[in-house]
Amino acid sequence: MIDLHSHTTESDGTVSPADLVESALRARLEALGITDHDTLAGYDQAQPLAEARGLELICGIELSTKAAFDGRPGRASVHLLGYFPDSGPAPEFRSWLLELQESRRDRNVRLAMRLRELGIEIQLEEVSALGHNLTGRPHFARHLLAKGYVKTIQEAFDRYLDESAPGYVERMEPGFAEAAGRIRQAGGISSLAHPVRLAGRDPVLEPRLIRILVEMGLAGIEVYHSDHSPEDAARYLGYAREYGLVVTGGSDFHGEVKPETFLGTGRRGNLRVPRGVLDELRAALCHVRR
Ligand code: AMP
Ligand code: FE
Ligand code: FE
Ligand code: ZN
After folding, report:
1. What is the CB neighbour count within 10 angstroms for residue 183?
2. Deepest in the core among 32, 72, 132, 165, taking most CB within 10 A?
């Protein structure tokens, strides 16, 4: 059993890179992929520890991208995973991530100002203390909860932070095609994260959007995920076969912020990613034209 999708305290998870390595060993994982949002800091910290403890660790990333779909208003937010199983990404990719992190910091300043306009007492420093290098909206949500402005994380998004909510402010997010291209150029394989969120299982829209993403350079698809039913996974496997996409899978473990999701086994044991998935990911890398 392996798990190719997890988050540490370097993005919006609550488990440190070192503790995540120990959790993976306890869960008897054969390999662990760390896929923090917009940062490799969690992987970089975990790497020497994993090596010392004999855990196979895979370098990954999760990027929030924007995709324009013909005939649909605005640009949809699409999460894209990237995997660099052998030597990590090329240096240009790391510099590009630093640019994305800078645009987040700028957004966070504006988001805190916007929330103050809405009557919330909030200092960015208090939120940043929760988020290390990569403070995101999930940290703002935790802060709103801790201060008693909302009763749940979901309420924080619904009332303040969601794209449709009054507190929302834009940040620079790469286009889907650009992000997929950068992952490929950096020597990696891109994979559509939790595809169940793409079109909410709509039987007409989903295949259409997946085809468009493939045309924009998508290389893989996350067939196995804690949010997927067996029917979902079977459908995503179908797209993988149809378009020759690489199959990936993982729990999307975040620690205490998603307490129902476990490393390796997902939700109530609904996940089991076979080792062969990683072998095929590696095999696919050999065929990628750079
Ligand atoms: P950021 O990258 O800082 O803009 O934050 C995006 C993250 O916030 C996503 O990866 C989700 O984990 C979370 N998120 C975004 N919208 C919602 C929502 N409506 N409900 C719950 N979580 C959300
Ligand atoms: Fe997250
Ligand atoms: Fe995601
Ligand atoms: Zn994730």
Report:
1. 26
2. 32
Q: Can you point out the beta strands (E) in 68-134?
A: 76-84
Verify whether ligand 1 is closer than 6 Å to residue 167 (CB atom): no
Q: Which fold has domain 2-99+172-289?
A: TIM Barrel (3.20.20)
Residue 92: which residues within 8 A CB-CB, separation 6 or more? Answer: 185, 186
Contacts for 245 with CB less than 8 Å, ≥ 6 apart: 191, 214, 218, 219, 220, 221, 239
Q: Which sequence spans correspond to the domains of the chain? A: 2-99+172-289, 110-161
Phi-psi region of 136 (alpha: psi -120 to 50; beta: other; left: phi over 0): beta
Q: Is the CB of 162 under 6 A from ligand 1?
A: yes
Q: What is the pTM of this model?
A: 0.95
Q: Which residues surround ligand 4, an ion (CB under 5 A)?
A: 62, 252
Which ligand 1 atom lies nearest to the CA of residue 140?
3
Q: What is the mean pLDDT of residues 94-120?
A: 96
